[in-house]
Design a protein that fits this description.
3-stranded antiparallel β-sheet, 42% helix, 266 residues, mainly alpha, 9 strands
């Protein structure tokens, strides 16, 4: 190879090298920005899918509770009853004054006496079932949210420790009782339809619902039961039940609640 030829090749390499350049700062920032957007979209989609899965699992749990109660009522040939202590000589299945966080616990106490019902409850994801121990109360007992709509929420810790009253006036402890939680760790609640409405109730100013029952405090808060059916309700992803008879903010908090069926709004 001659000296001229080597000079020509060297010159060609320099020209080729000068034609290649690295990323500029702007190009690097654009690339990083695109990557950040893609990561954010991936996280957003993953979060949405996870939340949708949690909603679905909670809805499944609520439907199993609804089915279990319906099975008990079919076999018992009557509705689950609830009311005050020994009213008019009657003894109810459940006392009406228990804290809302324990209404499902009380329902299970009654209906799980039937083997077919126990089989249905056993289908609930074990992650959503928790056995209660008065010596070790869960956080939702010891740290009640200040915006909890339950009028007796402040008594929850005391009643949990001392035991709940039976309709006949006796007291039982929480040993061996179960709570059913939603996917966000909040106890699922139950809203009972009121008793049969009579003309005398109207004189006292009590509202009559479409199914002929007295509207209860819980129905004002969470929604009006239909066809005299119990409503099971989860607070949803925000862990706040809100209240349908409250402020605009209260009602917004209730928008993500998950219910066993569509209720009427007060």
């Amino acid at each position: 190879m001659t000296r001229d030829t080597r000079m020509d090749l060297s010159s060609s390499r320099r020209r080729a090298a000068s034609g290649r350049r690295g990323f500029t700062l702007v190009e690097m920032l654009v690339t990083v920005g695109i990557i950040a957007i893609l990561v954010a979209l991936t996280v957003t989609v993953s979060t949405a899918l996870a939340r949708r899965g949690e909603v679905t699992r909670t809805g499944t749990t609520i439907q199993l509770l609804d089915t279990a109660l319906a099975e008990w009522e079919t076999r018992s040939e009557r509705r689950l009853s609830w009311g005050p202590f020994m009213a008019n000589g009657d003894v109810y299945d459940m006392y009406a004054g228990e804290p809302h966080a324990l209404t499902v616990t009380e329902i299970l106490r009654v209906i799980m006496r039937a083997p077919p019902v126990r089989e249905l409850v056993a289908r609930i994801d074990p992650e959503f079932l928790t056995e209660l121990d008065p010596a070790q109360p869960p956080v939702w007992v010891t740290a009640v949210s200040p915006d909890d709509p339950d009028p007796v929420a402040g008594q929850l810790a005391t009643l949990f420790a001392s035991g709940l009253p039976n309709p006949d006036g006796t007291v039982r402890t929480m040993n061996g009782q179960r709570a059913v939680l939603d996917a966000w760790g909040t106890p699922i609640r139950a809203v009972h339809p009121g008793g049969t409405w009579f003309a005398s109730d109207g004189v006292n100013g009590t509202l009559r619902d479409e199914d002929g029952t007295v509207r209860t405090v819980a129905e004002f808060l969470y929604g009006i039961a239909r066809s005299r059916r119990v409503v099971f309700v989860s607070a949803g992803p925000d862990r706040r039940f809100g209240r349908l008879d409250g402020t605009d903010e209260d009602r917004r908090q209730a928008e993500d609640n998950i219910l066993s069926y569509e209720v009427l709004k007060p």
